[in-house]
Design goal:
The complex is a heterodimer of chains A (277) and B (132). Chain A is an alpha+beta fold. Chain A is built from six helices and ten strands, in the order ααββααββββββββαα. The chains are: A alpha+beta (277), B alpha+beta (132). Chains A and B meet through α1, α5 and α6 of A and α1, β3 and α2 of B.
């Protein structure tokens, strides 16, 4: 009886798990009857470019191509407050039912700008810092490199206001790794497309390690004890230096997003067929 | 035994809940086993937007009534790789549309591909590779 039960669980679990994966595919290659014809993206083409020589010292300047999505880390347990906030978030920009800020093209905020739609990234050195620009939504973040400290008591009476992209300072770790520290992000933003929440006191560390001329590896780590029971790596990502330095225009336009919801999502019954959470 | 059955349904429940999270591009709303062929479709609007592009077009049904259709496709960055551009399709163009219709039966769906008057086929980035 015990064996029969165990086998039943395993078979059913495998079947349901497999069906999840099949539904998850947005690429055509895994479906029966399909032909593998999709041309490689610019990012995929750049994967064959090789290292291109050693990384220059303290220099990430230029445009880098990335994949559509980064690699997600393992999420820790949420605190009681974190669980209550997470339950309120209903992801899916393609659903009229969700409250995903992306659904109407609200700003991603940070770190969602580093965890969602990561096809392009630019670094530009300024007199007192480095600007990190994200292709999607043309997001501009100033990282102060002049030794200043992060603001304290953000979002409290008398303290500085929280912001969509918070406050960022940076420094170099060795010759080729830029470390960026960020806090003071408005807690109405999500950390990723899955709807994970954060507090204003969240501390985010980005580490951009230029391993050679053409390769940049990013690790994004979050420490937010009000919401999560321990610090964690939320994503890792890999970017490729782009010889042409040409970016694409990728904008989420509110009027178009609302048009999409009214023209496609609601009439198609996307909320009638499957809720996001 | 009761504990085991409870555990079993807890596992199954979690997995079932995970399905919509994985299927984040929302194609579960469409009948994807067979694309509907719509000939003589007159384009009324083409929105080259994020997160998804979509095409609006009119087609006459069997009784000669004009039906207003809408079909979504991938993001501009995905479709660009497949030969689409913001100006690939323009209002007034007459095209043939292959579309996976909504399970609700309404005239809305996910494109498989469209075929322009000159015979050029433009495929969707997600479901455009299905053989029909």
């Amino acid at each position: 009886m015990k064996n029969l039960f165990t086998v039943s669980v395993a078979v059913f679990t495998a079947a349901v798990g497999f069906s999840s994966l099949v539904l998850a595919q947005d690429t055509p290659t895994s479906r029966p009857g399909q032909v593998e014809q999709r041309p490689p993206s610019t990012y995929q083409k750049l994967a064959d470019a090789g290292p291109g020589g050693p990384a220059p010292v303290h220099d990430l300047n230029g445009f880098w191509n990335g994949p559509l999505e980064p690699k997600f880390g393992e999420m820790p347990s949420l605190t009681a407050l974190g669980q209550s906030k997470f339950k309120l978030n209903v992801p899916d920009p393609f659903s009229a039912h969700s409250n995903d800020p992306w659904r109407v093209c609200d700003p991603f905020g940070f770190p969602r700008s580093a965890t969602n739609e990561t096809r392009g990234l630019t670094f530009a050195t300024m007199p007192q810092g480095i600007v990190i620009m994200t292709q999607y939504q043309k997001i501009w973040r100033m990282v102060w490199m002049d030794g200043r400290e992060l603001p304290k008591n953000v979002g409290t009476r008398g303290g500085p206001s929280s912001r969509w992209y918070g406050y960022s300072v940076g420094h170099w770790d060795g010759d080729n790794t830029l470390v960026v520290e960020t806090t003071g992000v408005d807690d109405k933003t999500w950390i990723d497309r899955r709807g994970y929440p954060h507090s204003v006191d969240m501390h985010v560390e980005e580490r951009y390690a230029r391993v050679d001329h053409n390769d940049l590896e990013l690790t994004v780590k979050i420490d937010d004890p009000k919401i999560y029971t321990k610090p964690f790596v939320v994503v890792t990502n890999k970017f490729k230096f782009t010889p042409t330095q040409q970016e694409d225009e990728q904008l989420c336009v509110p009027s178009e997003a609302i048009d999409y919801l009214n023209t496609i999502a609601i009439p198609a019954g996307q909320d009638e067929v499957g809720q996001s959470k | 035994m009761r504990t085991r059955i409870g555990s079993f349904f807890a596992i199954v429940g979690c997995l079932l809940l995970s399905i919509p999270l994985f299927a984040h591009h929302g194609n579960t709303a469409y009948e994807t086993s067979k694309a509907v062929e719509l000939k003589g479709a007159t384009v009324t609007k083409f929105v080259w937007g994020n997160p998804h592009t979509f095409l609006m077009f009119d087609v006459k049904d069997d009784k000669g009534n004009v039906v207003h259709w809408a079909g979504e496709a991938g993001s501009p960055s995905s479709l660009s790789l497949l030969g689409w551009s913001k100006d690939s399709v323009q209002p007034g163009d007459v095209v043939t549309v292959y579309i996976y219709q909504s399970k609700t039966g309404r005239p809305v769906g996910r494109l498989n591909r469209i075929v322009l008057a000159d015979g050029t086929a433009l495929k969707d980035s997600a479901l455009g590779y299905r053989e029909q």
